[in-house]
Amino acid sequence: MSPLDWALIETWQEREVPLHIVLRSIDKVFDNYEKSKKKRTIKVWHFAAKK
Questions:
Q1: What is the C-alpha to C-alpha distance for residues 48 and 36, in angstroms, rounded to an integer?
Q2: Which end of the chain is more exposed for a tag (fewer CB within 10 A), N or C?
Q3: pLDDT by residue (tens digit) across 4-44?
């Protein structure tokens, strides 16, 4: 994990993002990864909320 990944995780912790939200996001990213024809490396920032 990169320093940016750790910083993002620390931000979630500081904002008290519930763990179940983080885990649900991780599940969604991996579900999309499995469905995708184009495989790329998954980074922590993929789990950040998208607007």
A1: 19
A2: C
A3: 888 988 999 999 999 999 899 889 888 888 888 777 777 77
Domain ranges of the chain: 3-47
Q: Which candidate, 24, 3, 22, places its Cα nearest to that of 12?
A: 22
> Burial, 25: exposed, middle or buried (Cβ in 10 Å; 0-12, 13-18, 19+)?
middle
| The two three-digit tokens of residue 4, written as one number | 């940016």
Cα separation of the two ends of the chain: 24
Amino acid symbol at 9: I
